[in-house]
Amino acid sequence: MRLVQITDAHLYADKQARSRAGVPWHHLQRVLQAAIAERPDFVVLTGDVSQDETAASYELAAETMSQLPCPWAWMAGNHDQPALMQAEHPLADEVSLPPWRLLLLHTPVEGEPYGELGRDALAGLSAKLEGDHRPTLIAMHHPPVDVGATWMDAIGLQDREAFWEVISAFPQVKIILFGHAHQTYAQHHLASTHDVAVYGCPAISDQFMPGAEHFMIDEASRPGYRILDFHDQQWETWIERVTV
Question: Where in this chain does the record put each Calcineurin-like phosphoesterase domain (predicted)?
């Protein structure tokens, strides 16, 4: 089973609108063309679909994603409007990818750049994990770890300690994917008695400078995506970049 993660498209309703380092819709087209060539079984878009937060931008995103020859899911980021997304394509909270299980967590806080799950969502996550011991992959928008860029770490998942406390009780959680950081990331996080692989992904739109103290665009990096190949309960993963 092959899963492709894409993230942070930051689309405008206007296909020709520019971001700081390119045209987001053009970037999305190139990333999807490359991803399709990878023959994915499933694609997940981990948030910040829109930049202007318009209904037209989500219509454009869903229309473009419909090129995919496989099922796909998306989630809201801090720049998104979930109700407008839901009107175009379902906001799933769980997907079965046998023998794996994908859980999609909602982390945005209205009006804020940082993320939070909150007590109720954490309790719900614990209940879901308690009742199902399949190997589990979690996707979310905000990083539940520090990525090493001071300004980005300040706007990651604010209740990350509580999140990891929940995860520590469930060794079936093997992998966490996040967006938001606009850069690659790959580390193992010790959750009590078990390791969890935590992965970030290049953005579809602008790339951010790794390790920066303040906001900075990485003009030398290109858009990209992450591939995960699953072999029963084992996996391989790597990043691919595209030319735009």
Answer: 1-183
